[in-house]
Amino acid sequence: MLARSLNRRAGTRLRDLGPMRAARRDALLALGLRDRRFGYPLEMVLHAARAGWRIGEIDVPYRPRTGASKVTGTLGGTVRAVRDMRRVLAEVAR
To answer: pLDDT tens string for the chain (94 positions)?
Structure first.
């Protein structure tokens, strides 16, 4: 659901908001990102798309997680992530 909303707002074609992003430091700082919590990855992609960056996904092999997720593994983490991402979507959409 998040990827669909992101794609609609940013014009991207992502399947997921993955855990890894790569960018040059100076360009990343120029985006003026403010969120330092769960909304940061979403804000980064939204601002990068608005700035005309090329955004893509690269499939990588991985192993299943051995522990619990700090975000979706707890009710508190899930609530904080949803709240932060909703706020970022509302702010960046302006």
So the answer is: 888 888 888 889 999 887 788 999 999 999 999 998 889 999 999 999 999 999 988 888 888 878 877 777 888 988 998 899 889 988 876 6
